[in-house]
Write a structure and sequence with these properties.
The protein has four helices and eleven strands, in the order H-E-E-E-E-H-E-E-H-H-E-E-E-E-E. It is of the alpha+beta class and 261 residues long. The chain has one domain: paralog of FGE (formylglycine-generating enzyme), CATH 3.90.1580.10. A four-stranded mixed beta sheet has the order 9-8-7-10. It has a three-stranded antiparallel beta sheet with strand order 1-4-11. Strand 5 and strand 6 form a beta hairpin. The longest helix is centred in the first third of the chain and has 25 residues.
Amino acid sequence: MIRFISVLFLILIFFNTASASQDSHQEMVFFPAGEFEMGSPKGIGKKNEYPKHKVYLNDFYLDKLEVTFADFEAYLAVNLKKHPTITGWVDRNAREDMVNKPIFGLQWKRCRNYCAWRGKRMPTEAEWERAARGVENRTYPWGDEEPNKTIANFGNCCFIQKGKVLTEVGHYDKGNTPEGISDMGGNVAEWVSDWYDKKYYAKSPYKNPQGPKKGKYHVIRGGAWNSLPMYLRSSSRYGDSDAKDYYGIGCRCAKDANPPY
């Protein structure tokens, strides 16, 4: 009898794991290995985007949606020593109007820890840009059309309004990448794994760049609800202190595709 129960328990674990893996796969986009052009030519964009250079990446997955308050609430529920972010909560539960909005106000390491809890990781800067610009060199994640209020949540002034200025993830269908990834320009910007170096592109390796070995800041990608249009560009990059709680920076996770799951 004990042996039967043990076998049944293992079967349940297998199916639960398979189901979770399938769900995880469905919420991510696969990017095959290959080359793309990263950065901007001189005269376009900011100086820290120079020089434009070719990069080869192994295949990987990237989340379709930014991490939401609901996602982070689930993380808090099983990590009782972790605390909620700066606003949007009632005790440890997401406020009703924030459940499907992107999490914000989390330090870089909190994004890293959340992604690890999901069995994923933070994307590299190169992976993020590959997803945003594609192999066709899109100016913005959705294409070459200039940003407007039907495409993205940006250009708002001046306060987060306890999260009310944000839109639910995936709200702007016109702002999706051709692969279906939402909010890579606007709503909240996103941490990536790399240390920031404004001159890194001049010495970046061709294959699977991981960023500098050390630095003062980490890289932030994508525009936010209060960003100017230039920050929504696929190649736009900047770095800032990863020890602060920001009102405009959130999180998105990636995963290696080898071995597949």
